[in-house]
Amino acid sequence: MFALLSRRSLFLCFLLLFVGVPSAFPVLRHQDMTDEQAKALGVLPQFDSRALVFGNGMKCTASMINSEWAVSAAHCFDYAATTPVTVQYKINGNSYVKTATAFRIVNPDTTNDFRDDLTLIHLDSPIPQALAWVAPYDLFDEFEQLGWQVGDGTYGVLSSPVEGSGYRAMSQIIASSALETGGLGNSITGNSLYYNFNGSPQATPPGQYVTRYEGGTGPGDSGGPLYIYSRGRFFNASVVSGPEDKSYRNTRMSTHLSGILANSGLTFAYPKALTPRAVWVAQDLTASVADLGTVTTWTDHIGGLTWSNSADGGAGAPLLVHGASPTGLASVRLDGDDAMGLPAAQNLFAGETAMSVVLDFTASAGNAGVESNPFGTTGILDASAA
User: Fold this and answer.
1) Residue 374 CA neighbour count, 13 Å, CB half
2) CA angle, residues 272, 275, 280, in degrees to nearest 5
3) Residue 194, CA atoms < 13 Å, CB-side half-sphere
4) Could you write out the DSSP letters of every residue in 100-153?
5) Element (H, E) at 99
6) Which residues of 90-112 are buried (b: 16+ CB within 10 A; e: fewer)?
7) I want to staple 271 with a disulfide (CB 3.0 to 4.6 A). Which of 20, 231, 265, 326 is the partner?
8) What dihedral do alpha carbons 183, 187, 193, 197 form, nearest 10°?
């Protein structure tokens, strides 16, 4: 079942797995990652929808989707159509324990089998502080996206797993090298997402889909959320199911969303995907502007809109810095009173009530002062205003 894992890869272990599998299979973390890092990831505020559910003699991980509804894995309760459970949710130092009922959700477009592994949980009374819930993912583009798997389950060395105490998290690219040949998307099926453990990112050579906080899954983490970031926010893309085909299998939220909505009566305000109106790329200028040369005009890719440093509010001498970004691409540097102006006739925002601007930047020329906080986020500015 785990032939893809080397002895060295199995030295340290970490987070989640299928409840029906023997406890010899814990969640793994790669050998160059510490348990303290796994715990720090597991309690990040963007993952505050995490919860626990107890029933049928089992403990599983769950995720709140609002103050009185949660999702987890149906196999935790023997795939029963309905079953009484108890949900435990902690936030801001407060702990809430609520009786609830779990309802299995079946994807109407696929065969009803063990891969239809989603349960929707209705609490008998709402949690007053469940303010950090995360909506189920609504799109079908999960393949090769970065996911953050959270759970409260077994961890430790494979040969002597330790019962989990507290949430831990890991990162994964949603793709399994055991199933992919040529990036055809075999890691995504009607009900399931597949990924596998790719060892340490410091290995030589690194695995095909390896991530900085690479890990696997273990008992107790079944039902745990796999968070992905899309359109400016986190969503719950799937719940942990178990191992299959030398991979880890999760049950998709997107293909079960209609059932979640129909059974809960909930609606979610999903953000619309942004459509670029203009895209300026500094790297385009390297063919005509020397390193540290003045940028006098800069034309976008879509509508032929052109910035100027000498007209329409433009001033100074913005510089083109070759190889300034962390990936070696060029950047436009504006110092002091430097400005680039755009003609009023080309104003994209005239008559608009909101705007979003995306910037790709580096801390300084020559790539000095790179991001030092591994949990930090740089590169996106959302300048929305009503």
Assistant:
1) 9
2) 145
3) 17
4) EEEEEE--TTS--STT--EEEEEESS--TT-----PBP--S--TT-EEEEEE--
5) strand 94-105
6) bbeeeebebebebbbbbbeeeee
7) 231
8) -90
Taking the C-alpha atoms of residue 128 and residue 68, their distance in angstroms, rounded to an integer, is: 9
Q: Which amino acid is at 269?
A: A
pTM of the model: 0.68
Q: For residues 252 and 247, what is the distance between their CA atoms, to the nearest angstrom? A: 15
Helix (H) or strand (E) run with residue 86 in it: strand 82-91
Could you report the per-residue pLDDT of 202-233, keeping only the tens digit for each?
888 888 888 888 888 777 789 999 999 998 88
Which residue type is seen at 99? T
Q: What angle do CA 254, 258, 263 make, to 5 degrees?
A: 125
Give dist(CA 68, CA 123) in Å, integer. 5
Kindly tell me the sign of the dihedral angle through the C-alpha atoms of 243, 38, 221, 239.
Answer: negative
* Average predicted confidence (pLDDT) for the chain: 80
Q: What's the confidence (pLDDT) of residue 356? A: 60
d(CA 42, CA 170): 8
- Give the up-direction half-sphere exposure of residue 117: CA atoms within 13 A in the CB hemisphere: 27
Encoded tokens for 45: 């505020």
Chain segment 105-119, per-residue pLDDT in tens: 998 887 778 899 999
Query: DSSP 3-state assignment of 98?
Result: strand
What is the mean pLDDT of the segment spanning 187-199?
91
For residues 126-146, give the mean pLDDT.
90
Taking CA atoms, 7 is separated from 30, 31, 120, 125, 158, in Å, by: 12, 11, 38, 48, 10
- Rounded Cα–Cα distance for residues 20 and 336 (Å): 63
Q: How far is the C-alpha of 132 from the C-alpha of 335, rounded, in Å?
A: 40
Cβ atoms of 6 and 134 closer than 8 Å: no
Q: Rounded to an integer, what distance in angstroms lies between the CA atom of residue 38 and that of residue 278?
A: 40
Whether 324 has a pLDDT exceeding 60, the answer reads yes
Q: Is residue 160's pLDDT more than 90?
A: no
pLDDT at 159 over 80: no
